[in-house]
Amino acid sequence: MTFEALGLNPSIIKALTEAGYTTPTPVQEKAIPAAIGGQDLLVSSQTGSGKTAAFMLPSLHKLADLPQAPQAARTPNQERQASRARGERPRFTPAQPKMLVLTPTRELALQVTTATDKYGAYMRRVRVVSILGGMPYPKQMQLLSRNPEILVATPGRLIDHMESGKIDFSQLQILVLDEADRMLDMGFIDDIEKIVAATPASRQTMLFSATLDGVVGNMAKRITNNPLTIQIASSATRHENIMQRVHFVDDLSHKNRLLDHLLRDVTMDQAVVFTATKRDADTIADRLNIAGFAAAALHGDMHQGARNRTLNSLRRGQVRVLVATDVA
Ligand code: AMP
């Protein structure tokens, strides 16, 4: 199977060839033709399966086919200049995106945005903007004033802009919920329902999640219309070099000593320690530093700049032990 055979626009194929993609992954093979055909999708697949391209390629393909906006339409900036010229107080014209991707974290949103820029590199008229918590409001207003076709957003910050009239979803055609199970785990259900309610019922909805059971399944039923369900079994073979072990410990001190012992393994280059809470991540990272490990914490209470610095130190090998909540 090739990307050409999936019927994608030649400018997308060109970008994919440049990115070194030769064959669609299983999730892409199933999702792309159905999404081009306008069907709603419920997809259970893991990160690493190529799920971002599975929803972004057909969406870009469809956005490329949309008729050009009428020539007379002014950009939001021109609109503001015109109202100033008329002596009126400039009004912010709300952005009217055609596609919205909701993600649980800023990191994932940025990954999706970068991938979209890559896949859409040869397409005219497709602008993508990320709307994220932690980003200064004036910067976001400036991005929204460009009236992007695609918004990639975390739910909380998007709600702020929606409620203050900066975004109008009446023209939305495609809604994607990426890692929906994690968004629900993070307590975004009310925000998601509010956002979905603000979009036209005629939209196409694609929901991606590690699991489609329970709460996610119930929400999926409410927000999709006769969806195609795609289940991609996570491939066990890809993880065959991972050994899983369970250690039973007597108490916290025993647990700390055991961690210390595991991390002193000289054959280990780098390690990630996951903790349940942000406070635990900080405490353990501090304790490991005192014990002589190059350790750093990563969690959602840290500013984006601090998170990026930690990740860069990890990439450069200056951090050996990353202690993280599931934001990692
Ligand atoms: P994702 O599951 O969307 O996080 O994608 C995982 C990685 O696979 C990303 O680095 C993509 O750039 C890459 N990828 C996605 N689709 C393909 C493909 N068809 N061929 C090669 N690499 C791909």
Short description:
This protein has 328 residues and is α/β, with parallel strands linked by helices.
Give an overview of the whole structure.
The protein has 328 residues and is α/β, with parallel strands linked by helices. The protein folds into two domains: 4-66 and 76-231, P-loop containing nucleotide triphosphate hydrolases (Rossmann fold, 3-Layer(aba) Sandwich), CATH 3.40.50; 252-324, Rossmann fold. Helices cover 43% and strands 13% of the residues. The protein is built from 13 helices and ten strands. The protein has helices at residues 10-19, 26-36, 51-65, 76-85, 106-119, 137-144, 155-163, 180-185, 189-197, 214-223, 252-263, 278-290, 304-316; strands at residues 41-44, 99-102, 128-131, 150-153, 174-177, 204-209, 228-231, 271-274, 295-298, 321-324. It has a seven-stranded parallel β-sheet with strand order 3-4-2-5-6-1-7, with helices on both faces. The longest helix has 15 residues, at 51-65. The radius of gyration is 22 Å and the shape is globular. The protein starts with 9 loop residues before the first helix and ends with a strand. The model has no long low-confidence stretch (mean pLDDT 89). Adenosine monophosphate is lined by residues 21, 23-25, 28, 47-53.
Name the structural class.
Answer: alpha/beta
N to C succession of SSEs: HHEHHEHEHEHEHHEHEHEHEHE
Alpha-carbon distance between the two ends: 34 Å
Name of the top-level CATH class of the largest domain: Alpha Beta
| Largest sheet properties | 7 strands, parallel
Model regions low in confidence, pLDDT < 50 over at least 5 residues = none
So, the CATH homologous superfamily of the largest domain? Answer: P-loop containing nucleotide triphosphate hydrolases
Strand residue percentage = 5-15%
